[in-house]
């Protein structure tokens, strides 16, 4: 008798019914592997799309049960002719417009998220993206929304809807940023010593305006975590802003323009300009508290002690 280990139990062929499991009485299918070995497996009792993972399949079921318990009428894999697309979950509330829930486990580009979101919104559907547990291992840049509480993404895990804020207290954000000035300075000096490309390029740019990267001001070495967004390290952004301010007072818009050439992550729900302004506001808050800058009407000025002669 041939058998294979399953998630629930080991398949055992019924002696009188070869296509049935003797333990759960579910239908058994079989196929041959790459090396010709015959495998038996349970026929899934859940409908799923071609190429859909079991994790996504079970996640959708859990989300559906979550909303059924809250008295929504729930449809799974509903085809919506208005957008010519099949939605993971459609909620029909007692009042108001239909709500589409997309439960996302696999990687997807911000552009595809944006296109699908706009497609639903264009015909009057509300759309919410719920992320699976795989997205909790990294910052889900493509799904971040700017809310009053900060940069937020929605997750569904362990039968609960979770709203996770990505700020300085978030471990994933802390993991991506170094906030120890001594360590940062050592890293910069090491990059200069070994002539690593980004450090060498920055050094050459600074030479042209009479500065040296090894003399980076202390105020440009972060001591606390800033919001996620830029692909460049924050010390580089702080240095660029400091250099701009060292030539004279600047408006907030001018400082945003200083940050514009810096590579940025993409979100389907936040424009890069809005995201840059949000991060800049946090930088200015920290620098104001540290006494690095002051405001003169609508202009930002470096304090005298922050300027290297």
From TrEMBL:
<dbReference type="Pfam" id="PF06054">
    <property type="entry name" value="CoiA_nuc"/>
</dbReference>
<dbReference type="InterPro" id="IPR010330">
    <property type="entry name" value="CoiA_nuc"/>
</dbReference>
<feature type="domain" description="Competence protein CoiA nuclease-like">
    <location>
        <begin position="52"/>
        <end position="148"/>
    </location>
</feature>
<protein>
    <recommendedName>
        <fullName>Competence protein CoiA nuclease-like domain-containing protein</fullName>
    </recommendedName>
</protein>
């Amino acid at each position: 008798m041939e058998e294979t280990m399953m998630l629930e139990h080991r398949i055992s062929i019924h002696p009188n019914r070869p296509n049935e499991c003797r333990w759960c009485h579910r239908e058994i299918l079989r196929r041959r592997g790459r090396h010709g070995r015959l495998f038996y497996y349970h026929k899934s009792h859940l409908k799923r799309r071609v190429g859909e993972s079991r994790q996504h399949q079970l996640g959708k079921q859990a989300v559906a049960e979550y909303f059924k318990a809250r008295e929504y009428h729930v449809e799974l894999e509903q085809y919506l002719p208005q957008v010519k697309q099949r939605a993971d979950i459609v909620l029909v509330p007692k009042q108001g417009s239909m709500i589409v829930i997309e439960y996302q486990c696999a990687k997807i580009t911000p552009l595809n998220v944006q296109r699908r979101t706009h497609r639903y919104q264009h015909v009057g559907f509300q759309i919410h993206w719920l992320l699976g547990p795989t997205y909790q291992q990294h910052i889900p840049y493509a799904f971040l929304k700017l809310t009053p509480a900060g940069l937020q993404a929605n997750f569904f895990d362990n039968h609960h809807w979770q709203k996770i804020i990505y700020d300085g207290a978030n471990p994933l954000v802390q993991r991506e940023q170094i906030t120890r000035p001594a360590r940062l300075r050592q890293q910069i000096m090491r990059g200069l010593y070994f002539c690593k490309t980004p450090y060498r390029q920055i050094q050459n740019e600074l030479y042209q305006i009479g500065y040296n990267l090894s003399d980076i001001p202390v105020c440009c070495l972060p001591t606390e975590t800033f919001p996620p967004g830029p692909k460049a390290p924050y010390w580089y952004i702080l240095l660029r802003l400091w250099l701009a301010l060292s030539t004279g007072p600047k408006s907030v818009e001018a400082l945003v323009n200083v940050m514009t050439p810096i590579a940025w992550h993409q979100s389907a729900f936040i424009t890069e300009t809005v995201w840059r302004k949000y991060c800049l506001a946090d930088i200015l808050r920290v620098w104001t508290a540290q006494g690095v800058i002051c405001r003169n009407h609508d202009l930002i000025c470096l304090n005298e002690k922050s300027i290297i002669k």
